[in-house]
Amino acid sequence: MLHYPGLRAVLLAVLTSLLLSGCAVVELLDAVALNPTKHREATGVRPSTLKLHRTLLVADLHADTLMLDRGGMKGIQQRHRYGHADVPRWREGNVGLQVLTVATVTPVPYSEPLNGGWILPNAQWVLAPLQGWPPRTWWNSRQHALHQAYKWRVNADGQALTAIRTREDLAAFLSANYRNTRAGWIPKSPSTQPVATVLGLEGSHALRLHYLDSDTQIATRVKEFRDAGFRMLALTHRFDNELAGASEGSRRCGVTPLGHRLLREMERQQMICDLAHASSRTISEVLETYPDLPVMVSHGGIAFDACKGDEAASRLLSVDQARAIAKRGGIIGIGLWPEVLGEAEPELAAQMIKRCLADPCIGPQHVALGSDMDGSVLAAFAANNWCMLTEELRDLPEGTLRDVMGGNVIRFFQKHLP
Ligand SMILES: [Zn+2]
User: Any idea which GO molecular function terms this record carries (predicted)?
Assistant: First the structure.
């Protein structure tokens, strides 16, 4: 307790200015370094493509936008000139459903292989204090994830964003905002209607299960995340953890005994397993051991040309893995950033999508979009310019184009949400 009002005011002023300058530092980082965009304007899009695009329901399986405040708890609802995504840009890009994903531990610098036994420093340990998040979120990844889930709930009040937790939520959202025509779901008023949003976790180390003993405790912890809104859990992020090996991890092992206990609980609580960032062994073991668990890859790509050397540790699925995921009814979100495409070009994303469509064992029902916008990547375009991808896919039959751009994701959630 301070008894000197003058000193208290000075301390308050110092703390406030540190906080304000912290936010300014994050905004500067965000604008100049974290989330650049290759094509800032949608060039080469024909007026007829734009007209078709305005009738689409675009669904994107991965954006990390909750990690950044951009002006506060509801900053996501304002339009920003930097970063990749916010509600006005989703509306402009005809995004009807956006999965918002929560990352808690991000090792930097991004070296290959990433962790080599260490994961310091952590970008979130920097972003959380600089943005003035509660101190409990600075060091504890569970608290960090739950804080982002709280932000998601505060924003997803049905006006700008609509929280989707169940099939009923999705059905109500679609019937309120879309016309269900023979061609597909057509938005009633794309510039003003809300955007549906599903919550996903990028790296289940945030559940901190290694501090728990019994299966009852694990079930309670999974329920805590489920109650907070999470419906998709990825076992790993960019490093091996106590649950499973990651594709960029140092050991790239499979699922650990603790990971199996989590997966069994995910099946019981109807959670979806996101295999993005998982090692090859983890992917195979999940597919073999849990035939009834819904699986997807929220963001990544497919190595249609054989990988060599270090590329084996990349974010690309092998063709066989992609086929196995499709056979299981899973969907694969194709990314827009250079590590999966070679260059951040809409044309290259379209080429990868078309190769999936041409493969009889993957096919048109299992390909989706997984942009990784606001995930510290160079994106081909920001969320308002999805029409650039529509342009590259214009030669597809309209039904296939609609499925890839959103229909497959809607059907997946209609089937697998609780
Ligand atoms: Zn990721």
Answer: metallodipeptidase activity
